[in-house]
Amino acid sequence: MAARSLNKVQLIGNLTRDPELRYTNSGAAVATFGMATNKSWKDDKGELKELAEFHNIVAWSKMAEICQQLLAKGMKVYIEGSLNTRNWEADDGSKRYKTEVRVNDMILLDNKGKQGVGFTEQPTDDKKEEVKKDSEPVKDTPSKDEDPLEEDLPF
């Protein structure tokens, strides 16, 4: 019996660039953007040290479109997903690797979205009907037949 495993990432940080939305040859939406997380500590001499980590983020399907519409460089967000590493052969024949966080869930931590519009938990009366119509769950992971092959990636 195979041992159980877990591939889960939770990040809170700031976007380092606006999401870039593209579409695969099969029509699946893909948004890519960067995110920075920071940590600080005091060294042996009591001096404050800081370190930034930079992460490549990828969202698929409806989640990709939502990220492109709402997110902008500098915004603070919570991202939950899994680590994925893809590889390819570069033009010079060398093997290249890229590790990305594939988004399953995203929560805005700023009080406004890309357009500067404030978000509230409860929709106003005139928007309630709209929300009910569009309240189907967001599926961000492509189905088995939608999962792109390396040559299908737009980047």
Number of domains: 1
Q: What do the pLDDT scores average to? A: 80
What is the global morphology?
globular
Text of the CATH class: Mainly Beta
Euclidean distance between termini CA atoms: 38 Å
Number of strands: 6
Tell me the number of helical segments per DSSP (H or I, 4 or more residues long): 2
By oligomeric state, this entry counts as: single chain
Radius of gyration over alpha carbons?
Answer: 18 Å
Strand order, biggest sheet?
1-3-4-6-5
Q: By CATH's scheme, which homologous superfamily applies?
A: Nucleic acid-binding proteins
**What share of residues is helical?**
10-25%
Largest sheet: 5 strands, mixed, barrel
Structure description:
Helices cover 12% and strands 43% of the residues. It is globular and about 55 Å long. The chain has a five-stranded mixed β-barrel. A hairpin with a 5-residue loop joins strand 5 and strand 6 (95-108). It has one domain (9-41, 48-152): Nucleic acid-binding proteins (OB fold (Dihydrolipoamide Acetyltransferase, E2P), Beta Barrel). The protein has two helices and six strands. With 155 residues, it is mainly beta.
